[in-house]
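Q: Study each token:
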Amino acid sequence: MKTKGKKSTVLNKYEEKIASYFIDKHKVKNRLAVPKVLKVVVNMGIGDLSKNKEAREQVIKDLSLITGQLPSVRKAKVSVASFGIREGAPVGLKVTLRGERMYSFIERLFAVVLPRLRDFRGVSLKSFDKNGNYTLGIEEHTVFPEIDVAKSGARGLEVTFVTSTGEKDKSEELLRLLGMPFVKIEN
């Protein structure tokens, strides 16, 4: 389902400037080979809410508001007695964003949410994996403006940007051009 309205500014920026930049700078011959963000995956653990259905429903509602999409409930694959988790019990929520919803989420994350974090100086450059994907941890989901702090307890979430670059340097360059506020490196 596509969102109604105009394209996000991040998507416009990518289509009009960033794609051309990569074609010129990195001599990409095929426009389909231009690095891009394939998807954004948002995960949230809810293991401690497995017995409290009302609180779990509130967290599902919160993640739906944040992403604009209903999350899938992830269930435990094995029982872990020391954590009080049984096989099949709900332990997490996952949302995979693509297309216009993904770019809209990226725009809100970079422009609104990250600057609201306390003592924010930029995101770390150390969170890339060997394939050029970037994972960002947010300690409290209540920094998103859609969340009513009175109804929700603070929960952490993880945002993973899956890119088509296959390498850290190009992925960093792509995310920086999209507006990711990386920490400034001082010489």
Q: What stands out?
A: Strands lie at 37-45, 72-75, 90-97, 134-138, 157-163. The chain has one domain: 9-45+60-72+93-178. The first helix runs from residue 9 to 25. Helices lie at 9-25, 53-67, 99-116, 168-178.
